[in-house]
């Protein structure tokens, strides 16, 4: 004699025997997994109780719920198309700067080796940096 516990809206039924199912390891339909995962996501629902009532391991229901939530999040994320336009209107364009007014890229490089500190500021070409670092070796 079997005893069935019924809790409103938490028991989901599926045929116990399906053609082509493996013995010992049932193949649950994707729709059944989805319905159970949706039920597990509702507030106040005990996943362990839901699994027990449907004859499943709680870890399996947690896995289905995690996959369901990941699918829901993936569906919510969408990329927005972006177009890059190189046109600049003459009304909003800044006035052109002469070479003397042009701002040169500024930066600094600081190298610490032991107690020695070498700091190079401003525009530095690769050859000058090689010379400075080469002098530290000697």
TrEMBL record:
A Pfam family annotated for this UniProt entry: HTH_Tnp_1
NCBIfam families: IS66_ISRel24_TnpA
Annotated protein name in UniProt: Transposase
Organism: Paraburkholderia strydomiana
